[in-house]
Write a structure and sequence with these properties.
Elements (H helix, E strand, L loop, with lengths): L1 H11 L1 E11 L2 E11 L2 E5 L7 H16 L9 E3 L2 E3 L7 H5 L7 E5 L7 H14 L4 E5 L6 H13 L4 E5 L5 H13 L6 E3 L1 H4 L6 H4 L5 E4 L7 H11 L3 E3 L6 H13 L30 E3 L7 H6 L4 H15 L3
Parallel strand pairs: 5-6, 6-7, 7-8, 8-9, 9-10, 10-11
Antiparallel strand pairs: 1-2, 2-3, 4-12
Helix pairs in contact: 2-12, 9-10
């Protein structure tokens, strides 16, 4: 079965490169390999610097979405947050315009090469322009505990309420230390863990250590929708479903994960298709009034051609695909 399945994947595989409106996570274009199975299209897009073992988990998720049995869904639409890259204050409005109306915005902080004051200025601009929006911060593990506390102090002093702070520090121990510090200062701030879940050999370690109040789950790095649902159930913490700068095909998998979770209290980070200049479908998954309907995506042949990656990049992805598939 494996030989026939990988042949089927390669036969339908298309590699695309989508340009971003604003530099994000250090990239200006996002590469992805798309393929079709009995369930429809799936996306495999581990970042190019990831080693094969990590990329194989992403492939397992994509194969499952294309060929496997999906869990039952308990909702048909998902609340979505806007995402703001680490832009200058005067670029905030333009960067958030593609998201339209939103109730919640996640602001990237701790960008390499920037200062804490840059984060403060960006947050202040968002707060002034959207005073009723819920604000989240995402540091991608870029702060030390004292830096995170300094930024939190600014928020408190200026009456800016945080929905939660996502992965302020890199290690589980630092997250736990930060939560203790917040408790001692009587600051009821929620800490969410992302990298500490998807990058850990034990995705439940952060919950078991009492280092987070919320888990951010991404279907692809966790090996698929079923495994992510299992982690959510075992952790016993509120969950936010997020994407990894996916095309609309990858966003669709995230929406199906969010729709399969019994409890979903927070808006999800599945609106990042709005950050691309183009997409691989004529009906991209762009949130309307802060919501996305749960559906699979019909890939458009013309769009695949427009955004096709160069031949040498296609070869690179196919070679990577064959190596990672052999790790199953």
């Amino acid at each position: 079965m494996h030989a026939s399945q990988i042949s089927s994947i390669i036969d339908s595989a298309r590699v695309v490169s989508l340009p971003l409106r604003t530099r994000f996570r250090g990239v200006t274009e996002r590469e992805a390999l798309l393929f079709e199975g009995p369930n429809g299209w799936a996306e495999w897009s581990p970042f190019v610097e990831y080693e094969d073992e990590e990329a194989a988990a992403w492939l397992s998720a994509a194969v499952d979405f294309a060929f496997g049995d999906l869990p039952p869904l308990v909702r048909t639409r998902i609340g979505i947050n806007a995402t703001l890259p680490a832009v200058a204050p005067d670029a905030v409005e333009k960067a958030l315009a593609p998201f339209g109306e939103f109730r919640t915005v996640k602001i990237k902080v701790a960008e390499k090469g920037q200062r804490l004051q840059d984060d403060i200025d960006r947050i202040a601009r968002v707060s002034a322009l959207w005073p009723n929006a819920k604000i989240r911060l995402d540091a991608n593990g870029g702060f030390e505990v004292d830096q995170a506390m300094a930024l939190i102090g600014f928020m408190v002093e200026n009456g800016i309420k945080l929905d939660y702070f996502e992965q302020p520090c890199a290690s589980i121990a630092e997250l736990a230390d930060l939560r203790v510090t917040l408790f001692r200062q009587s600051l009821p701030l929620l800490i969410a863990a992302d990298e500490s879940v998807r990058k850990s050999s034990d995705p439940l370690a952060v919950a078991q250590a009492g280092a987070a109040d919320i888990l951010v789950l991404k279907a692809a790095p966790l090996g698929g929708i079923g495994k992510a649902v299992q982690i959510a159930n075992e952790a016993g913490l509120p969950v936010v479903v997020s994407s990894a700068l996916d095309t609309s095909v990858g966003i669709s998998m995230g929406l199906h994960l969010a729709a399969a979770l019994p409890n979903l209290e927070f808006d999800c980070g599945l609106g990042t298709a709005a950050m691309f200049i183009g997409d691989i479908t004529r009906e991209p998954l762009i949130a309307k009034d802060g919501y996305l309907d749960v559906r699979r995506v019909e890939v458009d042949a013309d769009k695949l051609q427009v955004f096709a990656a160069e031949d040498h990049r296609y070869d690179w992805w196919i070679e990577r695909l064959e190596r990672c598939y052999s790790l199953f």
